[in-house]
Structures
1.
Amino acid sequence: MSLTAERKTYLDGLCGKFRRDVIDTLYAAQTGHPGGSLSVCEILTALYFEKARVDPSNPQKPDRDRIVLCKGHAAPMLYRVLAEKGFFPVEEMKTLRQLNTRLQGHPSIKHTPGVDLSTGPLGTGLSAALGMALGLRLSNTNAKVYAILGDGDVNEGTVWEACMSAVKFKANNLIAIYDWNKVQLDGKSADIMPQGDMAAKFSAFGWRCIPCDGHNVEALCEAIDKANAYPDDRPVIVLADTVKGKGVSFMEGQNAWHGKAIGESDHKRAVAELGGK
Ligand SMILES: Cc1ncc(C[n+]2csc(CCOP(=O)(O)OP(=O)(O)O)c2C)c(N)n1
Ligand SMILES: [Mg+2]
């Protein structure tokens, strides 16, 4: 179902605010990952604000949908979205990566309300998400598991094991979303580990693939609807075309901004580009 013009404007506004706030938070913390956080903004917004069934007043609700951020280093954007959704106060963003914070450098299921899986080590998320999906099926709920992958994440062999297993176990309640920004920590994916035709690869494993503009909330929502509507038992991946560092010209496509402290003048420039003061 398409979004109303009003809803689309609201969600686009949220994304603008999330980007500005994450840049401010990372500047204040002088540590953390700007590139991958800016890249995943619309994906998380589409899930938490439109498509996933979650309840901030009951984060452990047994039949909630699960969202697994396999690329756990993008935690700042996840936290900002969770805070807006009401899982914890937005004020708490100031504590990112501080001693005794609930907002650690990578998502922690033990510390942060709303986080469904601790992640950070790449390659582990999809396998765990598959296990969660199979467990939910045994519990007779119709909950979904959404797993957000990154380029560096899919370099890991365990992702492809999970890929095969998901087909064998007919995990049609597992939906992967590939934040496909084509850049990793130390360079372009094409140079580090060329990925070729990912749609052909996932299809060959037996997955359904839906290509989509990963910075268009409405397109993401439509892709997720489509993924949920298939009547058969194949897992689905949304191939979300994204840009690492999206929204800040000097960060876009630059692996140098994967995990780097933001200096004063860069902070000013970034905030100005994102429409802030
Ligand atoms: C197993 C493992 N190896 C190395 C790292 C260090 N590391 C953190 S992020 C990253 C690159 C991630 O790239 P990508 O998945 O494309 O994320 P994005 O571009 O969305 O930031 C690496 C190599 C890690 N977290 N886990
Ligand atoms: Mg990447």
2.
Amino acid sequence: MEINETRRKIPERLHAAESPLREATQLLTDTQTAVDAATKERRAHEKDLDAHEAHTEKMKSHAASLKTNKEYQAHLFELELANKKRGDFEEKILLSMDKVDQLQKTAKELQDKKDALEKVFTREKQGLDAQDKELAAELAQLEASYREASLKVEKRLLERYNQVKASRKDQPLAAVRDGICAGCRLQIPPQLIAQVKRSDDLHICPYCRRMLYWEGEPVTETSSPLSEAKKADMEVGESV
Ligand SMILES: [Zn+2]
């Protein structure tokens, strides 16, 4: 049961161990998306600049057809405006180039971090996989000896054992120690303790229904003075 419980938790542990790697991967993906967006933004500004330059060239080519001084003044004013606008576009391009650089630097750092975390996780995964394999082998061995031991148990007893095991989903046996059931930690009536000690029949805990057993040698009614002393030492209120 312990082995099954430990093995059951392995996927959870694996998931938890992978968590820093997942976070770094997500962060890297987000940063790469931001790099792409900033690059697109830069290209859009470059396109705007190209269009603006084309427009300005066209305007300049019209300069020869200007007739009056007023028209020429207006043209100079337009040119000045166009220059200013070009400056704005160039500024925007520089800013987005900076942004792309910064984001690419961050992406590089995150990539390194992700690579390192990947190595750590791979090691942890190998460890957990090995543990799982070891536990599976141990479990198979225990199951084999369980089957072997089952064959030696009286059928009626085995059936009761399996019933308790199935209903409790837990250890069906419990030792009687210091007057209490080791399974549920409740005090066992002295009369029942005496019966369990004799070990001549099967007794169950009245509280948790586990099958009780005595860890030492069976204690008979006609026991030696030594075991009588031991009995008196270990149990109280036993009826003889
Ligand atoms: Zn009990």
